[in-house]
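Private note to self, pasted from the team thread so I don't lose it. Backbone tokens:
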């Protein structure tokens, strides 16, 4: 397929900087040998498998040493996946059945992926695991994997997607990235955002681009333009830091001690979302209260001044906690996850809250706790009772299930605050898998139905005297943060890299201007119309 000059290829933009450069197509690597049974002994194949795993682990360590902090954190998580004892035991089971080392590992990963897969938060981990499987199998077969990129010049890489190991190999010549699949929360998007590489993901038409084609990667415009230069890029709204206070509090999203330290280097007013999953997902035994308290104390001590909003563990059968007996479910995104764990694992939730209470006392920090995946007022009341029995917390819930949106008035006097997770709320509101690139348009935070749902949440919560925040990906968009303030939310929480930009945006407008812009977004009939109305409105201020 040929493209005409100026033809637009739609996708989802990552970042605020545009680039125009020729294309380098990254083709799939050499096909791996077909899986087969072997006449070799179990010991021989086991040794081959362990050697390959060790070599790939060494490769990850080497990549981590030369990577930025964001990439290094990802490689640490990948090493945990690669060396998981349960995964190795599964592979050795296939070895016992006579399969070769490569086949055994590939089959074990497929089985492991079935357990992990199905939830948007963990689909990226499944993709990472499959990439690790490919690398282990390639090592056994003697096949070279990895990118061979130029060191000089400026190019736009085009591929289906990139693994974290691929992105670590990006040279200074990589000026832009286009992927035909993936989404705004993929590792490709995360790393491109962290390294200020212009990117457009979920752009299926890009599969027909050829080496040498000149393209404009225009993230702000959510598009790739064939044969165009940077002068035609969509202009990003820039906000100058005047030192003024923002209209509403701007907090940081964190998931580790390292994230807390990064956030402390920004002007964040505390933490709006502390994801606690990583404390539990890589351990085979339930940590004692003392161990949990120590970890929480470390994170709380490192976090920026201000309230610290902690989300209790958001895990379920699709995000398996090794030491909990979790059922296998056909549709895990709609299954036992988040606060629903309390039905069979109440002691686990109680332990986590007790540990947080101890860490709060040890650090003197202002800790708020909230439960994810709450669908009814009764569940909210149950969590509030558990949290208040454990310690002196402000108590809240995540609003990500559409049903709870209709019950916010019933939460008056039950919870102190709510926090909207727009990533999951969009997924459930539109019935669109967050990792399905064909449905990316439905998950655009400028969707009018989402904006109107957010307006209802803010209005009903205000009437019930409940504090409101937004901690989803949308809150990291400075222009959309202004809309959220205009709708009536009292705080937003962004990734550490976006905190200061969001603060500057919220300090650049008055409350009346924010309300006016929010009104324009509410009146829009399409995502593009909503976004354009706000961009045009901000440009006129």
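Design output:
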């Amino acid at each position: 397929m040929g493209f005409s000059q100026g033809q637009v290829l739609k996708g989802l933009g990552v970042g605020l900087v545009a680039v125009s450069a020729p294309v380098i197509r990254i083709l799939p690597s050499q096909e791996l040998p077909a899986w087969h049974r072997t006449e070799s002994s179990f010991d021989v194949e086991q040794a081959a498998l362990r050697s390959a795993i060790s070599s790939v682990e060494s490769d990850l360590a080497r990549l981590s040493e030369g990577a930025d902090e964001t990439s290094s954190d990802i490689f640490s998580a990948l090493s945990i996946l690669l060396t998981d004892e349960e995964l190795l035991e599964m592979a050795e089971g296939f070895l016992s059945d006579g399969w070769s080392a490569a086949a055994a590992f590939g089959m074990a990963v497929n089985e492991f992926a079935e357990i992990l897969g199905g939830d948007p938060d963990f689909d990226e981990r499944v993709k990472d695991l499959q990439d690790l499987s490919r690398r282990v199998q390639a090592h056994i077969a003697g096949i070279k994997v990895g990118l061979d990129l130029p060191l000089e010049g400026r190019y736009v890489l085009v591929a289906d997607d990139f693994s974290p190991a691929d992105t670590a190999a990006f040279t200074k010549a990589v000026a832009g990235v286009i992927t035909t699949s993936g989404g705004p929360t993929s590792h490709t998007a995360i790393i491109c955002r962290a390294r200020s590489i212009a990117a457009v993901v979920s752009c299926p038409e890009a599969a027909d681009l050829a080496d040498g084609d000149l393209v404009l990667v225009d993230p702000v415009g959510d598009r790739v333009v064939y044969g165009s230069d940077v002068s035609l890029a969509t202009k990003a709204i820039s906000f100058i830091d005047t030192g003024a206070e923002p209209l509403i509090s701007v907090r940081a999203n964190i998931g580790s001690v390292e994230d807390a330290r990064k956030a402390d280097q920004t002007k964040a007013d505390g933490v709006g979302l502390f994801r606690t999953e990583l404390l539990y997902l890589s351990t085979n035994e339930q940590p004692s209260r003392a161990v949990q308290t120590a970890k929480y104390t470390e994170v709380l001590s490192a976090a920026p001044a201000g309230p610290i909003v902690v989300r209790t563990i958001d895990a379920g059968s699709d995000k398996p906690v090794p030491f909990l007996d979790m059922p296998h479910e056909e549709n895990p995104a709609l299954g036992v996850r988040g606060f629903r764990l309390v039905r069979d694992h109440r002691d686990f939730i109680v332990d986590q809250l007790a540990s947080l209470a101890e860490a709060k006392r040890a650090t003197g920090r202002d800790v708020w706790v909230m439960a994810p995946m709450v669908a009814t007022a009764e569940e909210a009341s149950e969590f509030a009772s558990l949290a208040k029995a454990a310690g002196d917390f402000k108590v809240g819930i995540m609003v990500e299930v559409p049903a709870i949106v209709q019950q916010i008035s019933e939460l008056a006097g039950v919870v102190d605050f709510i926090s909207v997770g727009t990533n999951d709320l969009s997924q459930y509101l539109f019935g669109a898998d967050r990792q399905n690139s064909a449905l990316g348009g439905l998950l655009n935070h400028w969707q009018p139905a989402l904006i109107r749902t957010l307006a209802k949440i803010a209005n009903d919560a205000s009437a019930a005297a409940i504090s409101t925040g937004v901690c989803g990906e949308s809150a990291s968009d400075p222009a959309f943060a202004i809309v959220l303030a205009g709708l009536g939310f009292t705080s937003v929480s962004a990734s550490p890299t976006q905190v200061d930009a969001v603060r500057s945006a919220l300090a650049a407008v008055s409350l009346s201007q924010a309300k006016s812009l929010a009104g324009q977004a509410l009146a829009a009939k399409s995502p593009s119309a909503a976004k354009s109305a706000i961009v045009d409105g901000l440009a006129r201020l």
